[in-house]
Amino acid sequence: MDPALVKRSFALSILRDLPAAFSVFLLAGFAVGCGASQVPTAVTSPSPLVTPSVTAVPSVGAARVSSEHGTGTLGPYGGIAVPPGAYFVELSGFRYTFTVTASDWWTNNYNGTWLAIGKVYGENGPMTRLFIVGELPGCEMPKGAEGSGEFCPPGGVEVSADACHSSGTAFIPGATVDDLVAALAAVDGFESSEPSATTIGGYPGIHLRLTVPADVHMADCDGGQYHGIGAFWDIPPGQVQDVWVFDADGHRRVIWSAFDGNTPAEAQAELTQLINSLEIKPAP
User: pTM for the full model?
Assistant: First the structure.
């Protein structure tokens, strides 16, 4: 065969195979760059732990979330709708920016001390939520004051030693990250992961996963309630909570999420995306 024709045939074969080779290269790169999926799959088979990242969401153009709670129409607590987009809240001198990528999410801003971001799937379906908490040395509002009681900021210093039989078991952990993590890990009534070192928003901290046993009978608990972080008691059997306690410029901060045990994978994926979109920096 003519050598020139051989060279031309070889060149054409390379060009023909480039798209497939390039696709394989892209897929391989994506697999290496992304690693294992962080989407929880089932309560009975704990998912990989989620480590929030702050590199995905620029704060430029983010809208400030509403300063109110209970005045909207979404979720069980009058959540205020947040359409897809970037948002921020300022708590105790820090700005927390996050991105919502799907519809039907809502926020409730409690007294400027903590923010709940949530979504209910279906008319009465499972609920996923993310809680962003400011600097909380404790429940500073007197009992009976507006915003106290059930609205005492979750993540505050008070922890119940027994989740089901919580009456009379509340105590105040020390002021450090390790103090609060140890107190939460020791609460009777939660299945706790081993605390693990992580970073959130560039700040060093500790991650802990708490799971409510699926066979808990809430009717047997004090007041029919199951108590978790702070005064938070809206906890059904099988709920999974991820807690991040970290130090930001010498002050303890808490971010935590919760999803019900029957939450589908796609709903868990939305929650994971929300967590991973977090950007934390001092307020301007």
Answer: 0.73
